[in-house]
Queue: 2 jobs
Job 1
Amino acid sequence: MSDSTPSYFKSVPDELPVRRVKTAIVTGASSGIGLELAKKLSLNGYRVVGNSRRITSARTLTETEHIKRVDGDISLPETAERVVASAIQHFGTIDLLVNNAGVFLPKPFTEYTTEDLRVAVATNLFGFFFVSQLAVARMRLQKFGQMWWMQYKSLLWRPGGIADGRGLKAALALGAEGVQIGTAFLACAGSGANTTYREALLSKDTPRTELTDKFTGRLARGIKNHLMDELSDIDSTVMPFPLQHALVQTVAQPASMRGRADLMTLWAGQSVGLCQHADAAELMTELIAALEDIRKSEFEELGRQAETASR
């Protein structure tokens, strides 16, 4: 990070228009959930700065007067500086930062190579840190703004059972500084889950979820189906992870390819019955609206307190 303070941090207008247009930064915006979020935010009136390593050549997000693209590796501080500078120089403010960029390595961590670890840490940690540091610094000067992190947990967080704006409001009202939402995003296109899996998550006929160690050798929650029942009825010692996982996948993987939900390992949290969005951008729009309602209520309460104190 440069030692000198970037010019776009040196001043913020004393007054901003009451009905101003908002600006969002979305990392990992060239594909999947990040791309859909960038598009949906733009359709909802946000100016958007989208970033990914090769977002221009990907040609999935079209640059317009209200959408700007910034190529580059977000794990590098110079890329983070260019992303934040683009938002300030083109649009003047940063209202929302969506840290969506991330690397998922679909194998047990015991099989990670040194290069695997380097890539994962660079994107998932440094890629979050550098752009968040700059964006939050700007938000503090503005005295407004919010950040969404698609991968990690806050120090005080509320896991499980949250899949919509109502759950978000309830968790924050109870004192949580953040929430972790997983199952609701699994049901969305772009999550990586196949069509059969996502349809099971969104189905109103989905049975309850249960904890089991029969799928992988480790305790986890999934949708109760025929495979879970059959494995539960087998009176035998569960093999340690990943041996149990490898064994069960000899059945579950072919079932997934054939669309057999009854024989798949359908991971899901307790909130599965609340899943209603097949579009991640729609889900994010609902969550953002819920958070803005909370902030509005907080400001109104501060106003009432100030008025009472002045009497």
Job 2
Amino acid sequence: MSLYKRKDSSAWWLKVTIGGRKIQRSTGTHDKVKAQEYHDTLKAQLWQQERLGVKPTRSWREAVVRWLTETSDKATHNEDIRKLAWMHQYLGELTLDDINQDVIDQIRSVKLKEVSKATTNRYLALIRSILIRARDEWEWIDKVPKIRLFKESNSRERSLTFDQVKALMHELPMHQRETVMFALATGLRQRNVLALEWSQVNLDLRHAWVQGTQSKNRRPIAVPLEEYKRSERGRVGKDLICTNPKKESIGGKTHTTGGLVQRSLTARDYAKALGLNKEVKPKPS
């Protein structure tokens, strides 16, 4: 029987066999008529893939899971997860073929109201990178929409004056001041400051270093410690130079709203990859 019910689910399930390949999954609906429509559509698609060589329809979720798996060693991996979790509200229910210029323009417009052009570019560039890989390496799609980035200014350098530093310290709570002062004195990124260990510090030479595997550009960073002395040790953690003043939100939980019964393993993988605290479940076709 192609459609059937399971004891642990109120939705209809289907069983299809094409070319020796057996597929069993939830239709995501309690309506038998709609379940039969979904079954027939899926069976036709599978036949086209098997007999005519038509590429199967791939979802954005599948692309996200594969991207995060293949780029897990990226220095900005956690930033990708945070960005992709935000994009879910616009792309999470789409196939790769559904992502067109209108979808990209909507994301660009919404994000630009929240952040700067430079930050908006980082989101758009991530979408573009995933789609290009899906076209050129995975061969999942044949074309990619043209994604234009905003023109950015090259001048990002800025230094704080003594009065600005003094005002900043006055506004910060006590437990954050030492960490911020260390960052100002060394010029290190927040991630590098919070991950720096005593094993990477030579107080006699007043020198520290960030390993290449920990830096954004994968190159080691030499850090002179002219103002730091041996007496500083012991004021913070045993292993870390600076304790984390505020637990980072990267990789945290993002609340989502439901859908229907989980259709495939992809939904679980997608939710897990983005750190969603509730499985994002697909809508019925």
